[in-house]
Design a protein that fits this description.
single chain; 211 residues; alpha+beta; three-stranded antiparallel beta sheet; 6 helices; elongated
């Protein structure tokens, strides 16, 4: 669906949105804001925004569209866990006390790395906003262990399964607007992402559309 069509639909919905209190994961009301600046490609903010894209996929260029925290928690559990594992594998593989406890409770697994569930939750809220209750379950690449409340990887972290390239980043009063492309050997897609700013200077994904 084209961005212009989406903007028309969401603009018509702004009246309804003002009748209810806004939740943190709802940034659609900001789509009509005027762009105030472009983010420089060699800036710290550009690097930060580029890094955040890595949480959206493991190895597929075809990323699902979303406009709510509940959809994010459904679609990006595996990719977020892999994102964490790629960035902090030494940390997760080096917690001898935690791994010892896991292997005592699950001797058949011989776990070599583990991500605590509360760290996964915190990262989900950081990157996707919202305040919904996050449930925990196993994914394609990670096994959830309820006795230890951790995720353990089934395989090694997946590095570079899909290339994500930030093409442009613009700033409005309350948001950042990104255009980025995803590549694999056989596929290429272009996306629009809306990220909402927080008071502390951080931001979170609120909306993703395929162009």
């Amino acid at each position: 669906m084209k961005i212009k069509k989406i903007l028309l639909v969401l603009t018509a919905a702004v009246f309804l949105l003002t009748l209810v209190s806004c939740t943190e994961d709802d940034g659609s009301a900001y789509l009509s804001e005027e762009v105030i600046s472009s983010i420089e490609k060699d800036s710290k903010k550009w690097a930060e925004l580029s890094d955040m894209l890595g949480a959206l996929t493991v190895n597929s260029a075809d990323i699902p569209e979303f406009d709510s925290m509940s959809q994010s928690a459904k679609y990006f559990r595996d990719s977020l866990l892999n994102y964490l594992c790629c960035k902090n594998y030494r940390k997760y593989a080096g917690d001898a006390e935690l791994l010892g406890d896991i292997n005592e409770k699950y001797p058949e697994l011989d776990a070599v790395a583990a991500i605590e569930a509360d760290e996964f939750e915190a990262e989900m809220y950081r990157l996707f906003g919202g305040s919904i209750k996050i449930t925990h379950k196993s994914t394609e690449l990670f096994t959830y262990l309820d006795k230890s409340d951790v995720y353990v990887p089934i395989t090694s972290p997946v590095y570079g399964g899909c290339d994500l390239v930030l093409v442009s980043a613009e700033e409005t009063e309350h948001t950042y607007r990104l255009e980025f492309e995803t590549y694999t050997d056989r596929k290429c897609f272009t996306y629009f992402a809306l990220l909402v700013k927080r008071d502390d200077g951080s931001c979170y994904f609120s909306l993703l559309l395929k162009k």
